[in-house]
Amino acid sequence: MTRKARSSVVEDDDGRMDSQQPRGDGPRRRRAFTASEKLAHLSAYEAACEHGDGGGYLRREGLYSSLISEWRKQRDAGVLAGKAPGEKVGRLSAEQAEIAGSHGRTPV
């Protein structure tokens, strides 16, 4: 059994991808998070950051820092509060985005 390397994809002789390669098991479904899951991840991430392990938390959970940023904006604008389990959380309205953007800043 020989292996051939083509453009960083390793294949066996039978054409299957090597399971040690990223996504060797095929494409994955896009994950969706409920409001309570987002709040739980935010809380756990912020606790991990206090101990200097924020990046480790993101890697373990398979999350991106951009998700944390977006969820923080939603939380700060009050979008995540009071949502029922499974209820959709859409994009911020213009007013909510303004509130989230000015959160923690003093007017000049």
**Computed structural class:** mainly alpha
- The total beta strand count reads 2
Instruction: Please write the string of helix (H) and strand (E) elements.
Output: EEHHHH
Give the averaged pLDDT, no decimals.
75
Strand content: 5-15%
Evaluate the radius of gyration.
20 Å
In DSSP terms (H or I, runs of 4 or more residues), the helix count works out at: 4
Strand order, sheet with most strands? 1-2
Instruction: Please outline the major beta sheet.
Output: 2 strands, antiparallel
Distance between the termini: 70 Å
Principal-axis shape: globular
Low-confidence stretches: 5-10
Describe this structure in words.
By secondary structure, the chain is mainly alpha-helical. The protein has a domain of 71 residues. It contains four helices and two strands; from the N terminus they run ββαααα. A two-stranded antiparallel ribbon has the order 1-2. β1 and β2 form a beta hairpin. α3 crosses α4. The longest helix has 16 residues. The protein starts with a strand and ends in a 6-residue tail after the last helix. The relative contact order is 0.11.
